[in-house]
Amino acid sequence: MNPIRGAFARCEAGRAALWGVLVLFLLLLASASGRAQDAGATIPAPQPDPAQPAESIAPPEQEAPALPLLPASPAASRVLGVVDKPELVFLLQKAGFDARPLSYAQLEMGALDLFGLLMIDLERPLSVAAAAFVSDFVARGGRLIACSWGAAVAPRRQAAFPVYRLQEALQVRVTGWSADGNAYLRAGDAAPLFRTLPSFLDVRIRATPLLEPLASGRVGAFWVSEDLSRRGGTDARSPAIVLAPRCAYFAPNVLAEALHSRQMLRLLINAVSHLMPGLVLDPACVALAELEVVLGEARRAAAVSQDPDAPGLLAAAEGKSVTAQALFTQAAEALDATAALQPPVTGALSPEGEASTT
After folding, report:
1. How many whole angstroms separate alpha carbon 40 and alpha carbon 58?
2. Residues of the chain with confidence (pLDDT) below 70
3. What is d(CA 295, CA 301) in angstroms, rounded to the nearest whole number?
4. pLDDT, position 347
């Protein structure tokens, strides 16, 4: 055998052996790595350099916890929001309420956090958003006085009109529309509404929806065709006022009639007091508001009267009204001044009723 060829063969055999050892080592390394992963081995986190100052190591940023944007509860507010009736706002302010005007645009945006009670005339149809915001307002503890209705729709078609979504909050169901026999309001089982009022009230506008109270609604007044109380009779027809938790619904348009009738204004004030039990009004302020309504009625009557003395009588009535308001204002200012000038009591009362000085 050629010695050169034998040396070359031995070299090739050694090279193959070296490659075999290398492949075997790689297989063993891969197997060991797989077992380490199966055993739950983790790669250690990099440690900070001891030579680096500790204060220069910035901690990882953490997101601030999200705060829930919950709207304020209207239960504690004493502000009345009157939708689209500035004259009624003026009258309620004169009666002593903190009444504010509220537009339909604000209603549709849900800008209701300021108010504790809403007054809405449902003659104007509501949008889906406005009806949803009003329902949510009542669900969060707000109070609602609503009256009349935008459209007389059969029950099977009411779901298409957003205003009918308030029936659940008001605890009423509109079953029809009628003016037959609607002449007087007769007090029901809600005596506080008729406080200082007769049990039968004449109503000027009598075309109203027919109502049926739901489970939590109770009848505050019925429609009757005539006053039969003196003869011991009764003629109760459809409910005219339905009270629910935090709500009062009037079939007659009490928000419009309060501008023309002193009794309807008093009925509205009693409804507010019923829904806000802790609200206390000055009787003198309420009397001034009622006087404003009476004067308005006198002005309307004098405008169409053929009596030549009507303008003079109206002028005399307006003069007395101005005098009464001035006297009330002066009395209130004098009372405030007296309270401010009165020295504080610095001692306890003795048994004889005199203050003992300290």
Report:
1. 30
2. 1-72, 150-152, 179-181, 189-191, 226-236, 313-314, 317-318, 320-321, 323-358
3. 10
4. 43
**Quick one: pLDDT at residue 325?**
65
As a whole number of angstroms, the distance between CA 220 and CA 243 comes to 6
Quote the tokens at residue 60. Answer: 């990882």
Q: What is the pLDDT of residue 231?
A: 54
The confidence score (pLDDT) of residue 232 equals 55
Count the residues in the chain: 358
Distance between CA atoms of 157 and 269, rounded to whole angstroms? 34
CA 236 to CA 224: how far, in whole Å?
5
**Domain assignments of the chain as residue spans, ordered by start:** 74-280, 282-305+312-328
What are the pLDDT digits (tens) for 71-109? Answer: 567 778 999 999 999 999 999 999 999 999 999 999 999
Judge: domain 74-280, CATH 3.40.50.300.
no
* Secondary structure of the chain as H, E, C letters: CCHHHHHHHHHHHHHHHHHHHHHHHHHHHHHHHHHHHHCCCCCCCCCCCCCCCHHHCCCCCCCCCCCCCCCCCHHHCCEEEEECCHHHHHHHHHCCCEEEEECHHHHHHCCCCCCCEEEEECCCCCCHHHHHHHHHHHHCCCEEEEECCCCCCCHHHHHHCHHHHHHHHHCEEEEEEECCCCCEEEECCCHHHHCCCCCEEECCCCCEEEEEECCCCEEEEEEECCCCCCCCCCCEEEEEEEEECCEEEECCCHHHHCCCCHHHHHHHHHHHHHHCCCCCCCHHHHHHHHHHHHHHHHHHHHHHCCCCCHHHHHHHHHHHHHHHHHHHHHHHHHHHHHHHHCCCCCCCECCCCCECCC
Structure tokens at 328: 């009330």
Task: Look up the pTM and report it.
Answer: 0.69
